[in-house]
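[Meeting: bench + compute handoff]

Bench side (C.D.) handed over the final construct sequence. Compute side (W.E.) agreed to return the predicted structure before the next meeting so the bench team could plan truncations. Sequence as handed over:
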Amino acid sequence: MAAPQRPTRSTPHRTPAAPAKESVRVRVHALLRSRITSLELLPGAPLSENELAAELDVSRTPVREALILLGEESLVDVFPKLGTFVSRISVDAVLEAQFMREALELAALRETVKRADAEDIAALRTILDTQRATLTAADPDAFFEEDEAFHRRLMEASGHRTLWRTVTTAKAHLDRARRLSLPLPHRIEDLIAEHTAVVDALERRDAASAEKALRGHLQGVFDDIGTIQANHPELFTEPHGRTLPARPRVHPGLRA
């Protein structure tokens, strides 16, 4: 009779050091990026490696690496002998991000008009209802998150489910300007009306009207940037009053 086999002894699982280090850096970068784009850390705010490491309970290395990445995204500036600071908002960077976002969202919308089903329309209208609730609650931060949810869902309905990640990565300066625009009179009401016009056209499968409404909505930054720059000149790199590109009105009742 054959002797019973001994059970093999399993080796305890050990997470490789490099991936663990990588995950800490990714987490620190994501957190600091979120604080910058949400204006929790205002443009011009100093950033101390030591203080951030202590606050986040990590070593200085992942903080330093995260700050380098943020510098590559033009979200922090390093001045020798002075320190590291949150970068001020660049109007050129805002307009460049808006250009890219408009191109990608309009391209995706053409596919969404063809593909969107009743579930997609219902999901978008649910988001619109939530946006109206944030307006009633006077909560611009909550509205911003629902604004993001609306555009993400609109792009996902095109079938290009990872495209929103590309847009998000490129629009950090634009997001800071968008947040500054929300307290402007009637701005959130206008945005909700613009979103509604897009969904109404989408439900009718009216590609031309949907595209016109979305383009006008996205180009609202051209109307807002001068005002918020005048209201908060200390947050911008460029002096107020630089010439912005002109654009035609695209839809009665929409920001054009």
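W.E. noted at the follow-up: The domain at 91-235 is CATH 1.20.120.530 (Four Helix Bundle (Hemerythrin (Met), subunit A)). C.D. will use this when planning the next construct.
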